[in-house]
Amino acid sequence: MLKTIILILFLLVFSQNVVFSYDEEYISKSEFKKAYIEYNKSLNDKPDALDFFNMCKVVYYLNDSKLAKSYCNIALNKIDEQKNPDMALRSDILTFMGILYSSTYRNNDITFDYYKQAIKIKDTLMNPDEYELANLYMNLGYAYFNTNLTDYAFNYYNKVLKIAEIKNEDRFYLLLADTYNKLSLLEEKNKDVIKQKEYLEKSLVEIEKPNIYINHLLKAKIYLNLAKYYDNIEKDKTKARNYYKKYVIENAFFPDNKILKISDFDSLSLEECKKKLNEYPYDIYTNIIMGYLNIGINDDLSEKYFNKAISINPENPYIYIAIAQAYLNKYKVTNNKLYLLNIKNNMKQAEGRAYFSEDIYFKLLNISLHINSNGMAKKYMKEYKKCKQE
């Protein structure tokens, strides 16, 4: 009942013919900070199952799977306590638990158990939400794909298409983009390069449609798969590198809708950082600042903050660049060889994720010059020039 009321209020406020819960409004537009703060506040005042489910989803997307599982379990317990359980919501939570166990814990038995429970509930509902139903089909298809049962995977992907292809709604564009991308992976496994390309192109059309939703990670995945296709199948290095560069940029926008830039590590005090992280512990910038401020004072704690920043988006090369720069600032003052090692380790991580980005190579070149590494500087200068020429 509460979920229904919230959805009705959402319709009145936004005047759209789209029904979905708050997490879609925030998360699909990559407003993770706003989502986390909003949902966290809701837990302080008689929270219900939907409140805990929303928290489950937002922290999962921020790569905190352990906490996500805890929130989802609480949400399920809240539903069990209801006199008239919201079975539609229960099905959605079970679906998400399936996603958790598939992506994080790699436990196929538990994954399928959750999905089957979710489908069983959906089958009893008079008018199940078509978006949530299609989302369940898509994830079930991917679970079958991961267990090499490709015929079952294809069957469930087709179920998604039957629902989503006739819907002229923004949220279904993202669902279609994701499904087409997953179908391209299936055809890659089947070694059908013609269909693989067809589905990749369809996913690109959907993800680049102008709308209010900005799923940076999905767009990044599609760009990366396109890059690999043109690199390995068509041997078109120009197109491949173009998509690799797009991948780096799009991925770097997650989760803050902007590329990480740290120009002054002394701009915030410890107290200010602690206050910010108390409100929103997944702020990459603030975690890196905290890591920097603790270098030389408590190096273990410093590393903990740096690792937290990395865990939020481990494929973002700008994070490693920022950490290398943090150690560089301290190295120039202390000449501590351990900090030099940390600089080089983080540079290596950034280089492994540069994917022909001249911006990353330029930043690596600059750090190399500051640590007086002529060999590294020459290598990065060569890569930088090569990227600029293409």
Spatial gap, N to C terminus = 57 Å
Helix- and strand-based class? mainly alpha
Poorly predicted parts: 1-22
Per DSSP, the total helix count is 20
Largest sheet: none
Q: In angstroms, what is the radius of gyration?
A: 23 Å
Portion of residues in beta strands equals: under 5%
Give the overall average pLDDT.
90
| Spatial shape | globular
* Relative helix content: over 70%
Total beta-strand segments: 0
What is the H/E string?
HHHHHHHHHHHHHHHHHHHH
What does this structure look like?
The protein has 390 residues and is mostly helical. It is built from 20 helices and no strands. It is globular, with a radius of gyration of 23 Å. Residues 1-22 have low confidence and may be disordered.
